[in-house]
Amino acid sequence: MTASCSGIQSALDPAGREAADVATLFFVMLTGGAVIWAGVVAMLVYAARKRRAHSEKGAGQFILWGGAVMPTVILAALLSYAVWLMPNVRPWFQDEDGGLRRIEVTGEQFWWRVRYLGEDGEVLFETANEVRVPVGERVVFSLTSPDVIHSFWIPVLGGKMDMIPGRENRLALLAEKPGTYRGVCAEFCGTSHALMAFTVLALEPQAFEDWMSARRNASGAGDSEGLALFLKHGCAACHAISGTEARGTIGPDLTAFGERGSVGAGTLANEQEHIARFIRYPGEVKPGALMPHFGMLPDADVDRIATYLKGLK
Ligand code: CUA
Fold first, then answer.
1. 103: phi > 0 → left, psi -120 to 50 → alpha, else beta; which?
2. Model confidence over 29-52: pLDDT tens digits?
C-alpha cells in the first residue's frame, strides 16, 4: 500500500471495526469500478479495430445487453452490498445505548471540549483536544456545538458525524488496535477550520482504566509560582485545572496539559516555548481563536506559566 494510504489519519488503514467496513466498501466499489472501466476500454478498442459494419440486429442486442442489462445488474449489486453494509458502518445508538461508555464532544471555535460521562450521564471530568478510548469496547460519542457546525472525524476508527448547534448526534465507534491516531474537523467552520485537530489514543483496557482514575484524581500540583501567576493574570476566568482554584469553563480545561500531544488543538507540538507563544498571541498561531492575547504580560511571567502548564501531568 502506498504511503499516503497508511498512517494515523487514513481511512484505508483502519484501527476500528466501523473503519474496517468503510475500507472494505471502498475496495469493493473500487473493484466494481475497475471492472466496468476495463470492459468499456475493451469495447472501445474492439470498436476501433473492427472493419466490417455491424448488423442492425447485432447493434440492438449490444445496446440492450451492454447499455441496459449490464449496468443495471452491476449497479444493483453494488448498491445492495452498500445498503447491506450500512448498519455496520454507521451504527446509530439512540435509545438502546444503555451500558455503553459515553463521551461528550463539543465543537468549539476552534477546539474540542471532551467530557467523560458516568453511568447516569453525570460529567466525571473534562478534557480538551484529546480523546482516549479503550480497545475492544464500543464507545458512544455524543456530539454537539454551541454555535457553528463542525464535523467529528477519526478516519482510522470510522465515518464522520456533524456537530450541529441545538441537537445531539450520536456516533458509536469500536477501536480494535491500540495506538495513537489523529482526528480532524471535516466541516468548514471558520478561519481556523484546518487548524482544528485532536489526538486519539486507543489504550488497552487496563491502561484506560488507570488513566480514567488518574484523571479523576488529578491534583493540579506543580510549580506553585507558575500556578500563582496563572491565577493572578486571570487565566482561570476561562480555564480550569482540577485540584486548583482555576474553574473557568469558557476555554479548554488544562488539567494534565503536559500529557497532551499538541498546543492549540493540533496546531503546535507541546513544547514550553510553543505554549508561551500561544499565550502571547493566540490569534497569530490560530486565526480567529476567541482567546485574547496576553503579549502585554512580562516575558518572565508568560514563560513561567508555560513551564507550569508543560509540567502538569
Ligand atoms: Cu471545526 Cu471545521
1. beta
2. 899 889 889 988 988 898 888 777
Closest ligand 1 atom to residue 110 Cα is 1
Looking at ligand 1, which atom is closest to the CA of residue 187?
2
Please give the distance, rounded to the nearest whole angstrom, from the Cα atom of residue 185 to the centre of ligand 1: 4
- What would the grid cell of residue 267 be? 496546531
Q: Count the residues in the chain.
A: 313
Q: How remote is the CA of residue 62 from the centroid of ligand 1, in Å?
A: 50
Instruction: Please give the distance, rounded to the nearest whole angstrom, from the Cα atom of residue 93 to the centre of ligand 1.
Output: 24
Residue type, 303: D
Name the residue with the closest Cα to ligand 1, atom 1. 150
| pLDDT at 97 (0 to 100) | 57
Quickly count: other Cβ atoms within 10 Å of residue 311's Cβ. Answer: 14
Q: Read off the pTM.
A: 0.85
pLDDT of 93 > 70? The answer is no
